[in-house]
């Protein structure tokens, strides 16, 4: 096991009808910027609950943070926050809204442009405290310090790290009205978050392996149940907590991490606009296939413990495990190849050319070069 330091300061408030606790969690003397997405907070009843809970607080609203939040939109929120001299921010929505909020919180006290902080986090100084109400389980952003921000002008999408939410409220009932495609993408994102911290080497940390396998097994069991009935509170609770636990640092203690699939997925999303979780469902099996020699032992362990694949030769086990993973994503209703999404090789070639110009080296061994990315994407 590698050396590590672990700290997660976010207070998690989980369960039905917990949005009302906002009034106790945010001091009444704070001026709050409430950041929303595209309007679903009104149709699913969350907005009314937030308004009631904060009726005695001083608030200002910003609407319009999109999926894969764009810095162009976030600059408008930063300007509003500065104009109104806000000293607390509340994110209401999915992971993209919270990702955007993290950049807004760092940018309001900053004299320069928000994109400068994405490119160089060492420039981050003071950060406006913030919290979240999470209504779309997927990113784990509610209990980590990371975000992913896009730049429409430059066609780029990068990870960004600031600090943790002070608290996050998760009420599974807020997920009932989500489109089925969004739920499917969230399950895929959660699954791949887990496997990025798992599919490294064997015997590094048996405890972390079992924790990660527990999340994947739970997703495997829960996915068909929530697909059949998205208003099943118990199963949506299980899924929502899986999403949080998959990326709050608990499965990463003392182990290496990969993230090649995610880095490639971000590039595909930036180029094509395909939803992040959907890209991962296509790319992960291809990554496992191309890196089968490097990751073979762990793929076999994953296949045995998650998919009960125990018979056959080494190659047969690896093939069966990759196919089981692909079938799982297909069972969610997601595409499992680029051809289904009409993504052509010319797009892949353009994407790879840009990666080559940046000299990328993804993966836990930093050996996923632009040439390997091309092989993975052609496999897709």
Main-sheet strand order equals 1-8-5-4-2-3
**Quantity of strands, as a count:** 8
Q: What integer value in Å does the Rg equal?
A: 20 Å
The separation of the N and C termini measures: 33 Å
Structural class: alpha/beta
Total number of helices = 15
> Main beta sheet, described?
6 strands, parallel
- If you average the pLDDT, what whole number results? 94
Examine the secondary-structure arrangement and name the CATH architecture of the largest domain: Up-down Bundle
Please tell me what the overall shape is.
globular
Number of domain modules: 2
CATH class of the largest domain: Mainly Alpha
Q: What is the H-and-E element order?
A: EHEHHEHEHHEEEEHHHHHHHHH
CATH topology category name of the largest domain: Dehydroquinate synthase-like, alpha domain
CATH superfamily of the largest domain: Dehydroquinate synthase-like - alpha domain
Helix-residue proportion: 40-55%
Beta percentage is 5-15%
* Sequence stretches where pLDDT stays below 50 over 5 or more residues: none
Describe this structure in words.
With 380 residues, the chain is an alpha/beta fold. The protein has 2 domains: 11-174, Rossmann fold (3-Layer(aba) Sandwich); 179-379, Dehydroquinate synthase-like - alpha domain (Dehydroquinate synthase-like, alpha domain, Up-down Bundle). It has helices at 22-25, 40-43, 46-53, 71-84, 95-107, 114-119, 180-196, 206-228, 233-246, 260-272, 276-290, 292-307, 314-331, 345-358, 370-379, and strands at residues 11-14, 31-36, 58-62, 88-94, 130-136, 146-151, 156-161, 167-170. It has a 6-stranded parallel β-sheet. A two-stranded antiparallel ribbon has the order 6-7. α11 packs across α12. It is globular, with a radius of gyration of 20 Å. The model has no long low-confidence stretch (mean pLDDT 94).
